[in-house]
Amino acid sequence: MDLQPRAFLTDLLETPSPAGYETRGQRVWLDYVAEFADDVWTDDYGNAVAVYDGATEAETPELAFAGHADEIGFIVRSIDDDGFVRPGRIGSVDLSVSRGQHVTIHAAAGAVDGVIGQTAIHLREEGADDPDVSDLWIDIGATDGEEARGRVDVGDPITVSSSLSWLTEGRLAGRGLDNRVGTWAAAEGLRRAVERGADATVYAVSTVQEELGANGARMVGFDLEPDAVVAVDVGHALDYPSAPAEKGSDVELGGGPAVARGSTNHPVLCQAVRRAAADADIEIQLEALGVGTGTDADAFFTAAGAVPSQVVSVPNRYMHTPVELIDVDDLERTADLLAALAGRLHEYDSFAVDV
């Protein structure tokens, strides 16, 4: 990965962006895309958009690449009189790996460090169940509730304080890869489309609140009304020892982006993505999603009527933990695939199915 895109990826991943509190991460994204986009803007909730006006033919479909900026985390639900912070969930947090973690509470006056407490193994009953969020507490070192309330407020967002780790030159691990890698790919796909002079109008979109129900995609999809959307998210790579074989996916790290088929995924747009990959010699994988995608595509495809939508996933191990893991080659290929699709957009009048 070249130095500038790598630095951009690092900045995205090191900037906390819990769902509902994405503004810091969106600023990093906007500063990057502003260098090559024709225009950038945000809406009232912080969805961020960049556009390249490259179309020379008015009837060429307009295409959007979208990733979601938000990450899972916690929120300060209450502060007890002993000075312990009681957290609530932001999104689908995996509580089985939450105890014993360092966390950061993003308070108005600045970051407050804390730890999610865990009863020592010597004192626990054997076979204790996984915790409920109501069982968790965060210790910020306060001696009582008055001291704690002077440092944090109810409603402050919380993120796990795990670091970004390049395990090798090609394998990257950390929290929040879901889905800053998607916003990176949307931005990089746009940059590469611009560099290659794509004859198309292309939007890159960084949405908010996907982890809370694809809320941002509903907002920005209604505002943009693109002719087609490719939502870039992470997908489950099931190539590790405890992966459930019955899930039946062949997706693995290093095999290229996964192009989804079924449900929300539009058959004509899906075929266009696969053709673009084949013509550009980009290795891809196929993923079957027969009920729904669980991504922003499920909101985009009906936000402004019937909008052909397609999910392209970056294979990801250990999703919704502080140690998510990707192969950077898969991410690079995802950006190249988006740019390749943009380069072929002038070949299509629309993506409507032939009935």
Overview of the molecule:
- The protein is α+β, with helices and mostly antiparallel strands.
- The protein has two domains: 3-71 and 175-347, 3-Layer(aba) Sandwich (Aminopeptidase); 74-160, Peptidase M42, domain 2 (Elongation Factor Tu (Ef-tu), domain 3), CATH 2.40.30.40.
- 26% of the residues lie in helices and 26% in strands.
- The protein has helices at residues 3-14, 23-33, 145-149, 177-195, 215-224, 267-279, 297-303, 328-343; strands at 39-42, 48-53, 63-68, 73-79, 84-90, 102-107, 110-116, 138-139, 157-160, 165-166, 171-174, 201-207, 228-236, 258-261, 285-288, 309-316, 324-327.
- Strands 1-2-12-3-13-16-14-15 form an eight-stranded mixed β-sheet, with helices on both faces. A six-stranded antiparallel barrel has the order 4-5-8-7-6-9. Strands 10-11-17 form a three-stranded antiparallel β-sheet.
- The protein starts with a helix and ends in a 12-residue tail after the last helix.
